[in-house]
Write a structure and sequence with these properties.
Layout (H helix, E strand, L loop, with lengths): L1 E8 L2 E10 L2 E6 L6 E9 L1 E6 L12 H10 L2 E6 L10 H11 L6 E4 L1 E2 L12 E5 L12 E5 L12 H7 L2 H12 L6 E2 L5 H10 L2 E4 L1 H5 L19 H12 L5 E2 L8 H4 L16 H10 L5 H15 L15 E4 L5 E2 L18 E2 L4 E4 L2 E5 L2 E2 L13
Parallel strand pairs: 1-4, 5-6, 6-7, 8-9, 9-10, 10-11, 11-12, 12-13
Antiparallel strand pairs: 1-2, 2-3, 4-14, 14-17, 15-16, 17-18, 18-19
Helix pairs in contact: 4-5
Bound molecules: (4S)-2,6-dioxohexahydropyrimidine-4-carboxylic acid (DOR) and zinc ion.
Length: 391
């Protein structure tokens, strides 16, 4: 199949014809015969290295079908799903059980994390580990890709409000955890960093790091109540501003959502009882595209942090419109700005902290050359495939 249109290739938008064969980009030329024309701008779709799709065990909050459908509608073609399910993914057996369950109804490509425990060496097939430092203070570090939740149990307290939650799990707690990792002489990827000290420490120790959309777009003094409760906590407004600058200047590697849905009933409890987590996967790319339109981030930097660099961290042939890469595209029109409405999203949890914020949603989405969203409608179902990593 050949598609002709305005593609984002090598850092610029150019008119080209892209030939796709067996789901991959075979070649790109200025013009070729029988190219099917696509109107709008065509960008590589995003790669999200941090989601919680909640299956098995918590499928009242989300499941792999609804989570991955939300990802597709939000312009994300690959997700790495976290292991804190019920049962948790903490052995090759529980990994296989989860894979058998979720691969039947994944709408985008995916990989699965396993908990970093003392049995990590038993994993042969997929060496993607998540280390929750506040649960397992010391572990043997295996080979593979190790993402760390850097907070320590010893500096975590409870709080009764969103503002106070920042002080109950302070920035210094994250920094202390990262310093501890620095002493281990290993390579780590630090999840959801929430302070400038953490950014600096990652640079010092040679770690890669990700930031969530909520640590960029939300802060502790917004009227969000329990809906803004998340670990690590939302910080002061000036901190988000500094983190945004660090993202723009290249000191933060990637954006990853930490999409962590909980339903409204669970969030409507008192602050201490409400579970932490914010749904994100469907709205972040559209919000970034709106910021590109407004000139607050360049298209190049947005593509780096949303698509190119996350794919690179896992050696995935995704995130770029280039020969040999998966033909994962989103099609959009920069003049089509919409207000985000929870009622139009595909999450099971039915809420978003971004209600009424401006965004540019993709109209069509291609996964390995197959159209899965066409003009805002789902047209392909369950086409996502498991990718064993690191390759
Ligand atoms: O806020 C959070 N929610 N942080 C985490 O680390 C876990 C996540 C969840 O699974 O709900
Ligand atoms: Zn998480």
């Amino acid at each position: 199949m050949r598609y002709e249109g305005r593609f984002y290739i090598n850092g610029e938008l150019i008119d080209a014809c892209v030939e796709v064969e067996y789901g991959k980009i075979k070649r790109i030329k200025k013009a070729m015969d029988s190219c099917k024309s696509i109107s709008g701008v065509i960008l590589p779709s995003a790669v999200d290295l941090h989601v919680h799709f909640r299956e098995p065990g918590f499928t009242h909050k989300e499941d792999f079908y609804t989570g991955s459908l939300s990802a597709a509608f939000g312009g994300v073609s690959f997700v790495a799903d976290m292991p804190n399910t019920k049962p948790p993914v903490d052995s090759p057996e529980s990994f296989e059980d989860k894979l058998a369950l979720v691969r039947r109804h994944a709408n985008v490509d995916f990989t699965l994390y396993s908990m970093l425990t003392s049995t990590a060496h038993e994993f042969k097939k997929n060496r993607m580990f998540k280390w929750y430092m506040y649960e397992e203070p010391a572990v043997h570090i295996p080979s593979g890709f190790v993402t760390v939740h850097a907070e320590l149990e010893e500096c975590i307290k409870t709080a009764d409000s969103l503002h106070n939650y920042d002080f109950a799990r302070p920035e210094s707690c994250e920094a202390r955890a990262i310093r501890r990792l620095g002493a281990l002489n290993s390579k780590f990827h630090i999840a959801h960093i929430s302070s400038i000290d953490s950014v600096d420490l990652c640079k010092i120790f040679g770690f890669t790091c990700e930031i969530t959309p909520h640590h960029l777009f939300l802060h502790r003094d917004m009227e969000l109540g329990t809906y803004g409760k998340v670990n690590p906590p939302l910080r002061a407004k000036w901190v988000s501003k500094k983190l945004w600058e660090a993202l723009l200047s290249g000191r933060i590697d990637i954006v990853a959502t930490d999409h962590a849905p909980h339903n409204i009933e669970e969030k409507e409890q008192d602050f201490e009882s409400a579970p932490p987590g914010i749904p994100e996967v469907e709205t972040y790319v559209p919000m970034f595209l709106y910021l590109v339109k407004k000139g607050e981030i360049s298209l190049q930097r947005a593509m780096q942090v949303l698509a190119e660099r996350p794919a690179e961290l896992l050696n995935l042939k995704k995130g770029k419109i280039s020969d040999g890469y998966d033909a994962d595209f989103i099609v959009l029109d920069f003049s089509e700005v919409r207000k985000i409405k929870a009622s139009k999203l595909h999450y099971k949890c039915e809420w978003t902290p971004y209600e009424n914020m401006s965004a540019i949603f993709p109209s069509s989405v291609f996964l390995r050359g197959e159209k899965i969203i066409d003009d805002g409608e789902q047209v392909g179902e369950g086409l996502g495939k498991f990718i064993a990593l690191p390759a």
